[in-house]
Design goal:
- By secondary structure, the protein is an all-alpha fold.
- It is 84% helix and 0% strand.
- The protein is built from 4 helices and no strands.
């Protein structure tokens, strides 16, 4: 399962990068794209750190950070869609759906890891 998530997070990060590359121009677009680029690519890195965790508690901690970044990404995507900050805001719906799926996956992984600790 871990390799599946690794590939999914890599593709997700690539989609975030491609989206932010399209958000050029106004100060708002630059600001939101910078925030999205940071928060939307961070879960991939944090997942990698979790795989190399030094302890079960460290593993949970790294996954929690990734979950926080995904929640932040969701908020930035919703703002970009609402304003809108891209020409076809409906295209963000699919990315938002994937973000919500990843949030559920990370939440479940954290719950499972916490149960194993007890």
């Amino acid at each position: 399962a871990s390799d599946v998530y690794k590939r999914q997070l890599l593709e997700y990060s690539a989609r975030i990068v491609r989206l932010t590359e399209k958000m050029k121009g106004s100060q708002a677009k630059v600001h939101v794209s910078n925030q999205l680029l940071r928060s939307g690519t961070a879960p991939m890195a944090h997942h990698g750190e979790a795989q190399a965790a030094e302890s079960p508690k460290d593993f949970i901690h790294k996954l929690r950070i990734a979950l926080k970044e995904l929640r932040e990404t969701s908020r930035w995507l919703k703002l970009a869609q609402r304003v809108p900050l891209i020409d076809k805001p409906a295209l963000l719906s699919e990315l938002l759906d994937e973000t919500e799926q990843l949030i559920r996956i990370f939440h479940k992984s954290i719950s499972t890891a916490k149960k194993k600790l007890q």
